[in-house]
Amino acid sequence: MKPINVGLLGIGTVGGGTWTVLTRNQEEITRRAGRPIRTSVVADRNLELARGMTGGQARVTDDAFSVVNDPEVDIVVELIGGYTVAKDLVMQAIANGKHVVTANKALLAVHGNEIFAAAQAKGVMVAFEAAVAGGIPIIKALREGLSANRIQWLAGIINGTTNFILSEMRDKGLPFDTVLKEAQRLGYAEADPTFDIEGVDAAHKATLMASIAFGIPIQFDKAHIEGISKLDAVDIKYAEQLGYRIKLLGIAKRQDAGVELRVHPTLIPSKRLIANVEGAMNAVLVWGDAVGATLYYGKGAGAEPTASAVIADLVDVTRLATADPLNRVPHLAFQPGQMSDLPVLPMSAV
Amino acid sequence: MKPINVGLLGIGTVGGGTWTVLTRNQEEITRRAGRPIRTSVVADRNLELARGMTGGQARVTDDAFSVVNDPEVDIVVELIGGYTVAKDLVMQAIANGKHVVTANKALLAVHGNEIFAAAQAKGVMVAFEAAVAGGIPIIKALREGLSANRIQWLAGIINGTTNFILSEMRDKGLPFDTVLKEAQRLGYAEADPTFDIEGVDAAHKATLMASIAFGIPIQFDKAHIEGISKLDAVDIKYAEQLGYRIKLLGIAKRQDAGVELRVHPTLIPSKRLIANVEGAMNAVLVWGDAVGATLYYGKGAGAEPTASAVIADLVDVTRLATADPLNRVPHLAFQPGQMSDLPVLPMSAV
């Protein structure tokens, strides 16, 4: 079947991971999607990086607008980040009738209402599983898996940098500044860590989840945001002595009068599952009136975990954008006729 | 918009939960699905129960075949259970071009290949989120959320009855037989508990997950199955002294030569998240090559948690069966024009 063509904007950490996983798992992904998903063009300011990564398997350009205007491109994957150029590129892609997959929580938290309205008017999809909690399919769970429920609240460890810092402060009894420097050295925190440590990144993600959970427009400007930079090693120590761990939570909660939307350090009894989510891991707890509590746990960042979410969106868009009803989501994930003949082993062989 | 009509087969525990949640959350569910989901007819051998439950809001019959042959019915929800009548009903519904939603793991583990092939040929959906792990959207995670990954293995606590028994044996140091009787008294175990305690139910579920994870046909007959009825309180005590908990796991693992598919009691280090899943809760760990480990946790049984999954499937089918591309999965879960005006509260009001 004719491949669906992807234009990849940005081949840094997540873009590189996306290229790598799409290439490595191409055969399985095609069997699931029903069509090959082919990255036909890659845009990056660093042409050398892009050429090295793609090894001649895709056209390479430093002009991202040429990608969103390329009539051959069916889906634009936006992994540039930021609000300005990324927004123009996404809006132009939509105007050109292309589907968009993005990991850009900042863009969607600030301009999502405008972007989704434009996509709606054009009849294209803007998929953003990778924007929240990396590889955990939490957007899909909230939007589809829990659609029966009146969701009462959700609370998540949705920023790996701050969770890593808090875990290290607790484990090693070190002060915030020392651990932050260590996190920067290890690549868990950026050179300018403000968005992470001050809770802005978590608030972007909580804002998106709140909209999906409660069906409200995206309202990042209303979020209450408090980060972890004022926490002291002694706070964490006292909390532990009292049987608590301190976690930076993104919280969205339904009240009669409206929705609470807040990010702040929170004391959680140590026995709770979510209190035991350590290091750079993410977890989201969701409480629905029918299902009760459900929890989703996994890697919230990194090249391949985030790529996992980007590609899941590509498969979704490919499955859904195909008019043939038989090519929608297959019962057993893989398309009929594309099943594996891998045998189930007898126990003697295990 | 014209409602989509559901024919509900069985209004016992899960059927009753489905009716209750569909009624209670009707307004939100409609806003998510894009069309009202209306239960137009209910079939149950117990007409009095069905009449009492539906209170005149749906036609009631004791002839389930009249429902699957009813030209007004768009989606058949099969909650009767078992292999025989349920199979005939599902096959007849498919032959009549109706979509099917079912919670029947036994039916799908044994006859799923035939059922899905018939559905495929007819261009209808057979959705079964409720068949595995109750309200946890694990089928969706495996089939859609993790579609980028070469899945290496999955392991789940997917039978609430046995997990409840093992938790009670550990907490109270009681023997298996005593705790089983208590579980029966509390409604956590059935009068004939064989399928649960001997691991058959967990094997049904593991078989379905293995097929989705690895793209292999359903092969329940190849599963290695060992239950918990031979476990002694002393086994659990010794395990604990050595730093382990005993859990009944359903495991599917990829090897070069094929797939391991097995259910048996397993020692898990007590520090692991999954070792701390207690009582009737379920959890599934999935390891994908890109995403690494992800975990999904929630209620694995019960009226409303299972109904949550049944209704999620109804919303999925409603969204996907609607030809209008603008009525597919909406960006923020709720249909445009159906968003809430619930405000985000200022922190002073929280």
For the record, the count of structural domains of chain A works out to 2
Helices and strands of chain A, in N-to-C order? EHHEHEHEHEHEHEHHHHEHEEEEH
Helical proportion of chain A? 40-55%
Radius of gyration of chain A: 21 Å
What percent strand of chain A?
A: 15-25%
Which oligomerization state do the chains in this entry correspond to? homodimer
The H-level CATH homologous superfamily of the largest domain in chain A, spelled out, is Dihydrodipicolinate Reductase, domain 2
> What overall geometry of chain A do the principal axes of the alpha carbons give?
globular
Enter the CATH topology name of the largest domain in chain A.
Dihydrodipicolinate Reductase, domain 2
Structural class of chain A: alpha/beta
CATH architecture of the largest domain in chain A: 2-Layer Sandwich
CATH class of the largest domain in chain A: Alpha Beta
Structure description:
2 copies of one chain form a homodimer. With 350 residues, chain A is an alpha/beta fold. Chain A has 2 domains: 4-134 and 303-327, 3-Layer(aba) Sandwich (Rossmann fold); 138-299, 2-Layer Sandwich (Dihydrodipicolinate Reductase, domain 2). The first copy, chain A, contains 13 helices and 12 strands. Chain A has helices at 13-24, 26-33, 47-54, 64-68, 85-95, 105-122, 138-145, 160-172, 176-186, 194-197, 200-214, 233-241, 303-321, and strands at 4-9, 37-43, 59-61, 75-78, 99-102, 126-127, 151-157, 224-225, 244-254, 259-269, 281-288, 292-299. The first copy, chain A, has a 6-stranded parallel sheet with strand order 3-2-1-4-5-6, with helices on both faces. The first copy, chain A, has a 6-stranded mixed sheet with strand order 8-10-9-7-11-12. The model of chain A has no long low-confidence stretch (mean pLDDT 93). Chains A and B meet through α1, α2, α6, α7 and α11 of A and α1, α2, α6, α7 and α11 of B. β12 (292-299) of chain A pairs antiparallel with β12 (292-299) of chain B.
